[in-house]
Amino acid sequence: MPGPVVVGIDGSVHAWRALDWAADYADRRQRPLLLVHGSRALLDEGTIPPDALRRLIAEREDLLNEARQYALKLRPEADVETRLVPADPARTLVEESEHANLVTVGSRGQGGFEGLLFGSVGLYTAAHARCPVLVVSRSAAYPSDAPAEIVIGIEGVDGERDFIEWAFREAASRGSRILALHAVGGEFSPRRQVIEDLELSEALAGYRERYPDVAVDQLVSERTPARALVEASEHAGLVVVGARRRRAPLAGMALGRVNHTVLHHARCPVVVVPNRD
To answer: Are 37 and 86 in contact (CB under 8 A)?
Structure first.
């Protein structure tokens, strides 16, 4: 997919960690970076004095410039642009996703099952973006320190090829291995184990041949899909999941309960890849 790597910048520590990952991805994929700050507070609606509005705009421009300088320290040869948008931040990122290769947002997560840890901007973006969305928590490792394993949750249903392809391509780029995880949510017999292993292998058919340098491990788990993915994220550098489009126009992604749980609780960055079908 052509286009830049878009990063949502809001001045939080979560956004800085997202920028770390976005810069690493853009460097490996040879994509420009676009740093975006959207805010309804910047709208000239006559609710604040003109001088105050000008100062607010200048502050936000300084924030974007600081983020740009940080990105250039990470990747001196990077092509980095900034964009200040007087609009809702979530809708701004979704609009940018129309022409992006990846949208990156920060989350407020610390991992575990203690509570809901994902903000509304990130959730809206993940549910409506037209390109893959990378969600990075403050607690995530730096890209260079992340474990060399990418976890993908396989249901074994139609429409999974887009996110599987994305995960293999990313694994090849990062020099990572793939853990293909299929969770059945209950105990199973040895006979069912064989059947589930075969179905998992079938879902991965062709990818090993196209990506011979990517090592692949398969795991059939008795856990529920959500818990299995969150637990696997403890030792992963990245979790990649897919999302199906809703039938109604402009309705966005049907993220589902599993993806919601993973986005809120994963202990490593998560990528949501929309199905193009």
So the answer is: no
Residue 89 lies in a domain: yes
> Are 20 and 131 contained in the same domain?
yes
State phi, psi for 209 to the nearest 5 degrees.
-70, -40
Tens place of pLDDT for every residue, the chain, 277 residues?
A: 579 999 999 888 888 999 999 999 999 999 999 999 999 888 887 678 889 999 999 999 999 999 999 999 999 999 999 999 999 999 999 999 999 999 999 886 443 333 334 567 888 898 899 999 999 987 789 999 999 999 999 987 777 899 999 999 999 999 999 999 999 887 778 888 888 889 999 999 899 999 999 999 999 999 999 999 999 999 999 999 998 765 444 444 567 888 888 988 899 999 999 987 5
pTM beyond 0.70: the answer is: yes
Do residues 265 and 155 share a domain?
yes
Q: Tell whether the torsion through CA atoms of 124, 184, 179 and 227 is positive or negative.
A: positive
Which of 111, 136, 161 is the last residue in one of the domains?
136
Can you give the residue range of the structural domain that contains 164? 149-274
